[in-house]
Amino acid sequence: MSFNYSTIFDEDLSPDDPLFWSLPTPVSCDSVRTLGIFLCIAALVGIVCNGALVYSFARYKALRTPSNIFVMFIAGIGLFASCTILPLTGTSSIYCQWLYQRAGCQFSAIIAFLYGCASSYLLCGVSLSRCYMIVRPFKAKNVTVNKCIIISIISILIAFIWTMLPLMGWNEYTMDGARTSCCINWYDRRASYVSYLFFLFIVVYCIPLVILVIANRITLEGLKRMHKNIENGIQTGLNRKRIEMERRIVRSIIITTCGFIVTWTPYAVTFFASAFRGKEYALPPMVTFSCACIAKSSVIWIPMLYIGTSTHFQLQFVNQDALNEGIPNNRGNTVLPNIPRLSRKIDDIPMNPIPHNTVDD
C-alpha cells in the first residue's frame, strides 16, 4: 500500500506563501475530524494527569526521590505539550485545515519532537538509576536528587538541540500529508533531509530503546538474584521487604516504558519507512497522521500508566498511606510521633485493677 504525495503537494507553491499553510486536508474530513476530537479530549486528560503529577511532586517532598526526578521532568514537559501541541493539532483537525500558519506549525513540531526526544532520554535516566541502585545497593547513596536534576536538564538540552537542527537547515518542519499537523519533512529525498531522519531514528529511538531493554533486564535479574541470596542466607544490600518494594517500582517503570515504546514505535517506523520509499511511494496520509496522533497521545498514557502502577500514587493525586511509610532511602529514619511503645516484657507490666466511676482526662 503506497501513496503518491506529488498529487497533494503543489511543487510551485512555496512555504513562504500563506496559502501553503491554509489548504484543506486532502483526505476524508470526517476521519480527520474524529482524530481531532480525540486529540482535544487527550489535551484535557493530559493537563489533568500531568498536572496531578507536577502538583504532587511540588507539594510532597517525599516523592522527590532520585528516580522520580526524571518522571517529574517528563510530567512537566508533558503538561506543556498538553497545553500546546494537542490543542493546535486537534482544533486544526476539527476544521480540516491548519489554522496557525507557518509559525504555529514550527512551534507545534518543535514541542512535539522535544517531548518525544526528552521523554526517551529521561526514561533511560529512570531505568539506569534504578539499575545502579539494584546492582550496587551499597553505593545507592551516590544516586542523589541533585545529580538526577543535572542529568535531566542535560537530557532536555540535548533533545532541544536535536529539535533546533531543522531550523538551521538540516531538514525542515512542514505540513504532514493530512495538512492538519506538522512534522519533519520526511518525503523529500535530498541527502541532507534523509540523513537527518536516519540520525534521528538512531539517536532518539534505537539507542534509547536498547538502553531501556538492557537496563530493565539487568535490574530484574539483580532483584531475582538478591531474592535468591536471601533465601540461601547470604547477606545482601537490601532486605526482603525492600526487594519486594523495589520490584514494584521497577515494574511500574517497565510498564511506563512499554507505554512510551508502544505509542512512538508506529510513528518512528512509518515515517522512517516512508522517507526511504520517497514521495511517490509513501504510506497514505491517513496512516501517517494516525501514527502521529498515537505518538502525541503519549502525553497522557505515560502519566496515566505511572500513576496507575506506582506505589506512591493513586488516581486521586497522592497515595497518602504510601507517603506515611516514608521513602526508601529514609525508611529507617521514619518517626511515628505520639504512638505509645509497649515493652517486650509484658509480664513486668503491673496489672492494677481499674477503679469504677473514673473518667479519663
TrEMBL record:
Asked if the Swiss-Prot or TrEMBL record annotates the protein with the keyword Transmembrane, the reply is yes
Q: Which UniProt keywords apply?
A: G-protein coupled receptor, Membrane, Receptor, Transducer, Transmembrane, Transmembrane helix
Query: Could you tell me the membrane topology recorded for this protein?
Result: Multi-pass membrane protein
Which locations, inside or outside the cell, does it occupy? Answer: Membrane
- One GO molecular-function annotation for this sequence? G protein-coupled receptor activity
Q: Which Gene3D superfamilies match?
A: Rhodopsin 7-helix transmembrane proteins
Membrane-crossing ranges are 35-57, 69-89, 109-132, 144-165, 196-218, 249-267, 287-307
G-protein coupled receptors family 1 profile domain ranges (all copies): 49-306
Record-given protein name: G-protein coupled receptors family 1 profile domain-containing protein
Please give the organism: Adineta steineri
